[in-house]
Amino acid sequence: MKMKMKMRMKMKMKTKMLWRACSSHGSLSVSCMLSLPPSLSHYTIHSNSKCQNFDTLDEALSCFNGMLCMHPPPSIVDFTKLLTSISKMKHHSTVVSLSHKMDSFGILPDVYTLNILTNSFCHLNRVDFAFSVLARILKLGFQPGSVTFTTLIRGLCLEGKVGDALHLFDKMIKEGFQPNVVTYATLMNGLCKVGNTSAAIRLLRSMEEGNDQPNVVAYNTIIDNLCKDRQLNEALNLFSEMITKGISPNIFTYTSIIHTLCNLCEWKHAKTLLNEMVDRNVMPNVVTFTTMVDAFCKVGKITEAHDVVNTMIQRGIEPDAFTYSALMDGYCLQSKTDEAVKVFDMMVHKGCVPDVYSYSILINGYCKTQRIDKAMYLFEEMCRQKLIPDVVTYNTLIQGLCHVKRLQDAIVLFHGMVSHGQMPDIVTYRILFNYLCKSRHLDEAMNLLKAIESSNMDPDVQIYNIVIDGMCRAGDLEAARDLFFDLSSKGLHPNVRTYTAMINGLFRQGLVVEASKLFREMKKNGCSLDDCAYNLIARGFLQNNETLQAIQLLDEMLAKGFSADVSTTTLLVEMLSDDKLDQSVKQNLSKFLL
After folding, report:
1. Which has more pLDDT, 178 or 446?
2. pLDDT of residue 3
């Protein structure tokens, strides 16, 4: 009896301490996709309850309202079952609303109900409220389980607050709450996502020393992230380790490693691993095969990609839209759009419905080969199929239209994009600015820039670079200068492209002193020159008879491992053939042609 009393007192103390600890997280917020609480199969559902499975939210709400009218009302078990169904439908705000309504009717929650509420708050980016639910769990005398803590830890990790997640994990253990393998795997994944794979491996080792031994999920978490970071040797070492320990790799393990091997062009090793997984009775699925098809296509190995597709068909695995799209993309990368169309037609013939991505690949292929009318026809066909073009589709077509000098059609498409509710992104604007400035439509470019500045989207420095360069090329140096010096007030800093465009514009106007001053400022601000900048500025000095400065800059360029481009080389050849040029200068310039 005394022993039971001591244990009860100890648990109460633990609960109070954790309640105080969790209240410190009240200001946290998170956006996450979290696992639901475990099966509630141990509950005994009322035999007269029909509220177990729903096709729509309206059905669930009708059932909920009916349950509230029952006298006596169903147990909390039935309400929890209903909230679980709604949560699975991802109607998390409804879960929160119904939980409040249950409170107002005096229906007391249990720990499983509160776990569902915690999960929903995290989905709604309100992890601060989720921690408040944890406090309520403790206040009501319930014991939070691993599901509660894993949900909160995953939420913090997905927000990038891995430090907070580690703190909660440590606090959980300190207060006697034992994490399970899912908790460990969740924290490992969070550590890997922020690039701290070594800490994840240390957590794996500490897990081995505890009660919960790592399983395939824990190993997969680290192996997958090592693969994404292209740390193949480390991934293969862990792969060998898990096999040695009797942990069988699954389809996810093999697919992660095969994907990385393909990306690194380790084709033999990838095929060996594919055969090995079959020998171990782990059958490759459509994702595994599509991974190989995509990798082969990206490096131009279309024949090998087709061989993989034939192999998967022989094994009874039907290619899906992603498989066919990978093949289409491979052909388009080689400008074989007609072959890509054949794959598209085969996909339709096989009963595989093309999606936005499939259409966008073909549209891109036609645009790259300047068959813009066919691209537009496909776009219209896509819309007729009730598919909604995304921003990538629009950007591809706008770029294609601009490239064949159909700027007005591109602008019409841009307006159509906006009117259909598809918001342009920064890439859309860069494309438009680039072609507006190249075609000297500076007034339209400035109007568009003002429209963006007054909207919620902030133009980046690349957009300003395009406009400044366009103004300089059009001879509107004053406007370019104003825009350049106004960048700091917009919270932007000139980069090498900004400086080069402005300096080049000053050289064009013969303003050598100002150009030289800006060049010195550029170097003083720590802006490193690239190949393009060295060549452009060197030519500016040469064209303005500042030969000594040009030679100094060209020497520096060679020392940095860069070389004269075609335009600089042509200018040097012209200068060396000029009889009026001093022989000593010719001798200095000639070394840059060697």
Report:
1. 446
2. 44
For the record, the structure tokens of 312 come out as: 């998967």
- Is this prediction's pTM over 0.85? no
HSE toward the beta carbon, residue 274, CA cutoff 13 A: 23
Peptide bond into 424 cis (omega under 30): no
Structure tokens at 131: 């921690």
pLDDT of residue 5: 45
Tell me the two tokens of residue 478: 């004053």
Residue with tokens 């169903």: 74
Contact 264, 298 (CB under 8 A): no
Per residue in 291-346, pLDDT tens? 989 988 988 889 989 888 988 888 889 999 999 999 999 999 999 999 999 999 99
* CA distance linking residue 215 with residue 211, whole number of Å: 12
Structure tokens at 374: 């066919």
For residues 339 and 331, the answer to whether their CB atoms sit within 8 Å is: yes
Chain-centroid distance, C-alpha 288: 21
The Cα 536–Cα 277 span in angstroms is 55
Complete DSSP assignment for 514-538? HHHHHHHHHHHTT----HHHHHHHH
Q: What's 248's DSSP letter?
A: -
Whether the pLDDT of residue 29 is over 70: the answer is: no
Q: Are residues 188 and 203 in contact, defined by beta-carbon separation less than 8 angstroms?
A: yes
pLDDT at 158 over 90: no
Distance, in Å, from the CA atom of 216 to the CA atom of 222, rounded to the nearest integer, reads 10
Question: What 3 state SS string does 148-196 have?
Answer: HHHHHHHHHHHCCCHHHHHHHHHHHHHCCCCCCHHHHHHHHHHHHHCCC
Which among 350, 409, 418 has a CA at the least distance from the CA of 375? Answer: 409
Contact 372, 400 (CB under 8 A): yes
Q: CA quadruple 82, 86, 92, 97: dihedral positive or negative?
A: negative
Q: What is the pLDDT of residues 387-404, one digit of tens each?
A: 999 999 999 999 999 999
Cα(156)–Cα(134) distance, integer angstroms: 14
